[in-house]
Amino acid sequence: LAKTTQPISMDSYEGQEVNITCSHNNIATNDYITWYQQFPSQGPRFIIQGYKTKVTNEVASLFIPADRKSSTLSLPRVSLSDTAVYYCLVLNYGGSQGNLIFGKGTKLSVKP
Amino acid sequence: NAGVTQTPKFQVLKTGQSMTLQCAQDMNHNSMYWYRQDPGMGLRLIYYSASEGTTDKGEVPNGYNVSRLNKREFSLRLESAAPSQTSVYFCAIQAGTASGANVLTFGAGSRLTVL
User: Fold this and answer.
1) Quick one: pLDDT at residue B106?
2) Which is it for strands A9-13 and A106-111: parallel, antiparallel or unpaired?
3) Which residues contact B44 (CB under 8 A, 6 or more apart)?
4) Phi and psi (nearest 5°) for A80?
5) Which is higher by pLDDT, B91 or A1?
């Protein structure tokens, strides 16, 4: 299972674009990059997943360079409600992930 | 948290008491997980189950036992609760997506306090 590294915390202001980068140097061919968001007192929820290049949904964009050793979660025009912890994970296609360990995540604080 | 039901939502125990946290899914997926999250900390994997009848240890299995008797349910048991086990416990299932790898869907959590 590929290990991931991401910043412990980030601060931003409402209306700004926030980019959170995750490194995963040992990513394997069948691995997908997946991001989760967790609000206080709630379980993490899936926000976006990608394999290469760029993926966009109604919540965020995910940028993945050609070598796939890193990825960047982009949150456009954040609001106070985007204050949360964001986790980057690398998940294998198909089958059980086995010993699926979350890191500490990135705590994003959005200020007015 | 549709698809993953955890019970109870809250529980207070005295040191040495035992209890079982229940997790049930209605999505017919093989893999299920138990995590704990202490205040201000990240998620730590306790045990996981790749399929019915199989279980494996995660990062922090000491003090816990699990049971996966059928595909739908995965229970976590504390035989002799300790204050260090005060935490929020999350159950998760591994579900597929239409376009890629499997992702995790979490339950709402069970908040446990051990006095």
Assistant:
1) 92
2) parallel
3) A101, A102, B35, B36, B37, B38, B58, B59, B60
4) -55, -35
5) B91
Which residue is listed with tokens 């997943």?
A49
Among all chains, which residue has been given the structure tokens 């579900």?
Answer: B95
Rounded-to-integer distance, Cα A40 and Cα A65, Å: 31
Both structure tokens of A109: 């604080």
Structure tokens belonging to residue A106: 């990135």
User: Residue A44 to residues A34, A54, B35, B107: CA-CA distances in angstroms?
Assistant: 12, 23, 11, 9
Tens digits of residue pLDDT in A12-47? 999 999 999 999 998 888 888 999 999 988 999 999
Q: Which of residues 68-107 of B touch A (CB under 8 A)?
A: 88, 90, 92, 94, 97, 99-107
Rounded to whole angstroms, how far apart are CA atoms A101 and A2?
A: 10
Q: Which residue in B44, B56, B108 is closest to A43 by CB distance?
A: B108
Q: Give the three-state DSSP class for A30.
A: coil
Mutate to test the interface with A, among B4, B55, B87, B102 (most CBs of A within 10 A): B102
Count of beta carbons in the 10 Å neighbourhood of residue B16: 10
The answer on pLDDT for A108 being more than 70 is yes
Separation CA A66–CA B108 (nearest Å): 37
